[in-house]
Specification:
This protein is mainly beta. The chain contains 2 helices and 13 strands, in the order H-E-E-E-E-E-E-E-E-E-E-E-E-E-H. The termini are far apart. InterPro entries: XAC2610_dom (IPR058087).
Length: 220
């Protein structure tokens, strides 16, 4: 076996361990469909996303422009986010925000049960590849968006349309799940944490504790 193959086998578990993982093993799995767009350009370039396939006949575009193209490492991940609408062959700005985004990944997921996909722009990642996002709820009838304050603090957010709640699955020394809800333009943190078993010899109580947490929140 040559040295290149040895290097590939060595790096494979490291690289795959850095991929952001959605938690398919949740008791109440999200049924919201997801559209993901990630630019091929690096963070030094601006780019636009044509949203015609997401918001038909609304002529909307998302534009991310780097705030700084210099050598300041932190500022290189700071972007101007614009939602633009094409009118009379001109681009009209609907919304603008200054955000931090490490990889400029944009996702479209309904996060408030109105059957309209909302805008998520990747924010940060920790050493365990737990990602956070900026969330903008889309009002398609009025062609406007609303930023949800505090959403960027939720790691690996996952929407549960059945309960109109947000849960997550955080990779850690001991993996855990917490629960949230959007209220107005802010996030309610229920301060409930469900832990996975610490080791394989422990009997798993994650499923039962998760269900108890849901019942506690919805009041059943």
């Amino acid at each position: 076996m040559n040295s290149n193959l040895i290097l590939i086998f060595f790096l494979f578990p490291v690289l795959t361990g850095c991929v952001n993982v959605h938690h398919e093993d949740h008791i109440f799995e999200s049924k919201s469909s997801t559209t993901i767009i990630q630019p091929t350009s690096n963070s030094s370039n601006e780019f636009e996303i044509n949203c015609d396939t997401i918001y038909r006949n609304k002529f909307l575009k998302i534009k991310l422009s780097p705030l700084n193209k210099g050598n300041n490492h932190e500022l290189n991940y700071t972007f101007i986010f614009q939602l633009l609408k094409e009118q009379n062959k001109q681009k009209v700005e609907i919304y603008r925000d200054t955000i931090v985004s490490l990889v400029q990944k944009v996702e479209f997921i309904d996060f408030n049960n109105d059957n309209i996909k909302d805008i998520l722009i990747q924010n940060s990642s920790d050493v365990r590849s737990n990602w956070t996002y900026n969330l903008y709820l889309v009002d398609k009838t009025k062609t406007k968006v609303q930023k949800i304050r505090g959403f960027e603090k939720i790691k690996n957010p996952n929407y549960l349309p059945k309960y109109d709640l947000i849960d997550n699955k955080v990779m850690s020394g001991r993996n855990w799940t917490s629960f949230y809800k959007i209220q107005g333009d802010s996030i309610i943190d229920y301060q409930i944490i469900v832990y996975e078993e610490g080791n394989k010899n422990e009997e798993s109580t994650y499923g039962s504790e998760y269900k108890k947490a849901i019942k506690r929140i919805i009041g059943d």
